[in-house]
Write a structure and sequence with these properties.
The complex is a heterodimer of chains A (about 350) and B (about 550). In chain A, about 25% of the residues lie in helices and about 35% in strands. With about 350 residues, chain A is α+β, with helices and mostly antiparallel strands. Chain A has 2 domains: about 230 residues, Rossmann fold, CATH 3.40.50; about 110 residues, Nucleic acid-binding proteins (OB fold (Dihydrolipoamide Acetyltransferase, E2P)). Chain A is built from 8 helices and 22 strands. The relative contact order of chain A is 0.12. Chain B is an all-alpha fold and about 550 residues long. Chain B has 2 domains: about 250 residues, Orthogonal Bundle (MetI-like fold), CATH 1.10.3720.10; about 260 residues, MetI-like (MetI-like fold), CATH 1.10.3720. The longest helix of chain B has about 35 residues. The chains are: A alpha+beta (about 350), B mainly alpha (about 550).
């Protein structure tokens, strides 16, 4: 069942359009990540769904109820939208205990006292917070506060759970744990969740569907594998992963694979852009760093590069390579022994796009 | 923001009601100034008589000129002194900074009628110090009943206002800006001149504009010190106009007020713009970073402490000491020994006179209970304007400015008229309600600013999270905003209590038998020259203010913003 439909949402701030027609839908038991750089409009889109911002144009339906329709003049306030929102800062009310924070949404829905107690205790138990019920937010650690915020947004069973950068205030180790249990919890409760994040690995790890935003519009949407492995535009390819970006001329001969000519070096590649080349004299190649294999000795299809430096990163080495004006970043398990190394760049990993 | 558009009916009702409350007195005064008789007189006709009269009265021009001199003179005295005090106390390692600060602020909390009276009994022609000085040296070469004397005293008493703004700007100045200049090779004094001064310049300019406004609206100090020699400013001219004509001449009072508004209203607008500019400067700073203090050195300490000491003696010790001494002395004059005159009779007599003892009770009631009502009212208005970026929010912004352009004396007068003639208000005139409403309007800009600052401390997400959890706007205010600002409200109550305690001008026309208040009683006693009673009342006023201030500090009120 489709719990959330967002259709052509447009919003201006002064003369600046910050959302330019975002559309998507999400259903029960699925997690959608809104991924984008800062200023891409992802948080604004989330706040529009929550009713905290008012888009000028668009329709939003939550759980079958239209909550926004510019043509029908519908714009429900946040409290009538049946949503739960987890804030980046958690926004726990400092004057209420953990129990009271979580119980508030149920109290507003006139739930009987006994039922409130049972529901709040159950969800606190589930998230391992039962022993903290009587504490105040300032007596909790960051990770505990975050779990309280999630309990507070979930306890009254909203149709849609909205999460605004829920992991950004946690330290690195906790964050990796949280990715895992948040996904597990949402799948278990079978609710529809929308998460805003600027961190691609977070989006890939948690979401079933990733929407990549740029300038207030969705550039690409798909499963994490599709977003990472099958980008359809240069922006999408470059935004994800750690990349080598090369500019050059497109070389196209019938019967032969496409290639890019960068400063005299021809690299075979494949055309990945959803549109045909607009200007063959100026195309871009994106090569994921991990796709390049570097060896000390020449192998078939390899090309020699000067080694500019090797950087030790703990679990791996990063290589800085150079050939003429062409510079590459690659990685491997060992330090390179000599001043020259040989790179093999597979054609299937050399993705060509319109710039 | 759609949140701002929530509860629009409540917001517009409250803000429109407030606008009516602040606009009514101003409109009434302007209307009255264009009539040839009191507006309630049946023979009143539109006329420019009042303007013709004042524009042909040399006394008016003299008052206008005196007021201008007074306002600018006050700025010249107060701004440099306040700036230096702020610098010494916030940016240097001056000894005793901790306890000096509250002491520096004392003149601000006292009503200027008390202060002025304190100067009269301390260094007036037959003041304690003057007589002692004359006994030792044969003559006392000063007179505070002259324009330079009045200006000097007015300026000194307004040093705390400057201090407050400049000190808060200096505190907000992050020390890395100064450290950057130090590491670039500038000496400490160089840094103060090249970095600190330009950064606090907006605050200095703002406090200069504020003092200019206060100077034009001044009443207490020129009333007490200027009257003996016939020195009039615009407000005292308005006050004295009745005695000149021997009958109430409302149209003349109104016309002078219109002239005053023509001066004060632009000043209020300039201030508003300056404040915005000052805020923008301050916003550069970020967190109240740990500031490195300048080392004064031995000689520096001595010089700095001497400056502050002299200022304290002149601005705090002389007037307050004078009041305290005079309150316990009867029949003071040349050739009388203090030790033979110490008595409690002044107080006994106050408690024998029903109007005076009632005045004390009323003042306390109005400050404590009225202060609480005022906080409630300001909170209602504050919530109506809270995160309100719509048209009503702008209207509120401007409504708050109107009473600032009106001196308390005039607000009291206008409300006196309203309570005389608006049918449903008439029965309230002889109750404390009439005074309370006028006080609320007079204290509006100060009180609302405290409340608004407190409301803004609630992070927007805390409200938004209540909304997304299912609470309406009102429910959010009730369950989240108000509980969170409650400690701030207690502090605001104490500060407004102090403002109401020291108010004297608003009640001059508005008070009636049964609704006397200390400050306004002192104004009317001045005409009869009942020094003993004024002294006792001043002493009680100082005492009440001290109690209020202690309470404020206990409740954690923020004196600097």
């Amino acid at each position: 069942m489709t719990d959330l439909v967002v259709d052509n949402v447009q919003k201006w701030l002064g003369g600046l359009q910050i959302l330019s027609g975002a559309s998507f839908s999400a259903s029960k038991g699925r997690i959608v990540a809104l991924l984008g750089a800062s200023g891409s409009g992802k948080t604004t889109l989330l706040r529009c769904i929550a009713g905290l911002e008012q888009p000028e144009i668009g329709r939003i339906t939550i759980g079958g109820t239209p909550v926004l329709d510019d043509r029908a003049g519908i714009a429900l306030p946040p409290e009538q939208r049946k949503i739960g929102l987890v804030f980046q800062s958690y926004a726990l009310w400092p004057h209420r205990t953990v129990f009271e924070n979580v119980a508030y949404g149920l109290k507003l829905r006139n739930t009987p006292q006994s039922e409130i107690k049972a529901k709040v205790e159950a969800i606190l138990e589930k998230l391992g917070l039962a022993h903290l019920a009587a504490r105040y937010p300032d007596q909790l650690s960051g990770g505990q506060q975050q779990r309280v915020a999630i309990c507070r947004a979930l306890v009254y069973e909203p149709k849609v759970l909205l999460l605004d950068e829920p992991l950004s205030n946690l330290d690195a180790k906790l964050r990796e744990e949280a990715r895992f249990w948040i996904r597990k919890l949402i799948l278990e409760l079978e609710i529809c969740a929308i998460m805003v994040t600027h961190d691609q690995s977070e989006a890939l790890a948690i979401a079933d569907q990733v929407l990549l935003l740029k300038g207030g519009a969705i550039v690409q949407s798909g499963s994490p594998r599709e977003i990472y492995g099958k980008p359809e535009t240069f922006y999408a390819a470059d935004f994800m992963g750690t990349n080598n970006v090369l500019a050059g001329k497109l070389v196209r001969h019938a019967g032969k694979p496409d290639a890019i000519d960068c400063a005299g070096l021809a690299l075979a590649g494949i055309w990945k852009d959803r549109d045909p080349p607009t200007d063959p004299a100026s195309v871009k190649a994106v090569i994921r760093m991990e796709a390049i294999s570097v060896t000390a000795d020449a192998v078939p299809d390899s090309a020699p590069f000067d080694v500019e430096g090797c950087i030790y990163l703990g679990e791996k080495w990063e290589y800085r390579l150079k050939r003429g004006d062409l510079r590459l970043r690659a990685q491997g398990h060992d330090e390179l022994p000599g001043p020259v190394a040989h790179c093999r760049i597979p054609a299937s990993a050399t993705w060509l796009f319109n710039p | 923001m759609s949140l701002a558009a929530q509860a629009p009916r409540y917001r517009s009702t409250v803000i429109l009601a407030l606008f009516a409350m602040v606009a009514a007195p101003a409109v009434l005064i302007i209307y009255q100034s264009f009539l040839n008789a009191p507006f309630f007189d049946e023979t009143a006709r539109p006329s420019l008589e009042a303007y013709e009269f004042i524009l042909s009265d040399p006394e008016f021009y003299r008052a206008l000129w005196t007021t201008t001199l007074y306002a600018f003179g006050m700025v010249v005295v107060a701004v440099p002194l306040g700036g230096v005090l702020a610098f010494l106390i916030t940016r240097t390692d001056l000894r005793g900074r901790g306890w000096l600060e509250p002491l520096v602020l004392v003149p601000m909390f006292l009503s200027s009628i008390v202060l002025a009276f304190g100067y009269t009994v301390a260094i007036g022609p037959s003041g304690f110090v003057t007589i002692a000085f004359r006994n030792i040296f044969g003559a006392a070469p000063w007179s505070i009943y002259t324009l330079p004397g009045i200006i000097l005293i007015g300026g000194l008493s307004h040093v705390p206002t400057v201090y407050l703004y400049v000190a808060s700007a200096m505190r907000r100045l992050p020390s890395d800006l100064e450290e950057a200049a130090r590491t670039a090779g500038a000496s400490v004094w160089r840094v103060s001149l090249d970095v600190t001064l330009p950064m606090v310049l907006p605050a200095l300019v703002f406090s200069a504009a504020l003092n200019l406004l206060l100077g034009f609206e001044t009443f207490g100090i020129p009333l007490v010190l200027g009257d003996p020699n016939g020195i009039l400013v615009l407000t005292t001219y308005i006050y004295k106009v009745n005695t000149i004509f021997g009958a109430p001449t409302y149209q003349v009072m109104a016309a002078v007020t219109v002239f005053l508004i023509l001066i004060t209203l632009p000043l209020v607008f300039i201030q508003r713009r300056l404040l915005r500019h000052a805020r923008r400067f301050a916003a550069v700073g970020g967190k109240g970073a740990r500031t490195n203090l300048l080392k004064l050195g031995r000689a520096g300490q001595v010089i700095a402490l001497s400056i502050i000491g002299i200022w304290l003696i002149v601005s705090v010790f002389l007037p307050v000491g004078g009041v305290i001494l005079r309150a316990f002395v009867e029949n003071w004059g040349e050739g009388i020994r203090i030790t033979e005159q110490l008595t409690l009779d002044n107080f006994r007599r106050i408690f024998e006179l029903p109007s005076l003892s009632r005045g004390i009770v009323n003042t306390i009631l109005l400050a404590a209970v009225g202060g609480a009502v005022a906080v409630g009212f300001y909170l209602m208005v504050g919530l109506a304007g809270h995160r309100n970026h719509g048209k009503t929010g702008t209207l509120l912004d401007y409504s708050v400015l109107i009473p600032r352009a009106l001196p308390g004396l005039i607000v009291g007068l206008a409300f006196f008229w309203l309570f005389l003639f608006v049918p449903f208000l008439v029965p309230l005139r002889t109750t404390l309600f009439s005074l309370l409403i006028a006080y609320i309007i007079v204290g509006l800009s100060y009180g609302l600013r405290i409340i608004q600052a407190t409301l803004l401390q609630v992070a927007p997400e805390l409200e938004e999270s209540a909304r997304t959890a299912g609470a309406t706007t009102f429910r959010t205010w009730r369950d989240v905003v108000i509980p969170l600002v409650r400690p701030g409200l207690a502090g605001a109550w104490a500060m407004i209590m102090i403002v109401f305690l020291r108010e004297y001008a608003t009640g001059v026309y508005l008070m009636s038998a049964g609704t006397e208040v200390i400050g306004s009683l002192m104004v009317s006693l001045l005409t009869s020259g009942a020094m003993d009673q004024i002294a006792a009342l001043s002493f009680i006023s100082i005492l009440l203010t001290a109690v209020g201030l202690t309470l404020a500090l206990r409740l954690g009120a923020k004196i600097h913003d």
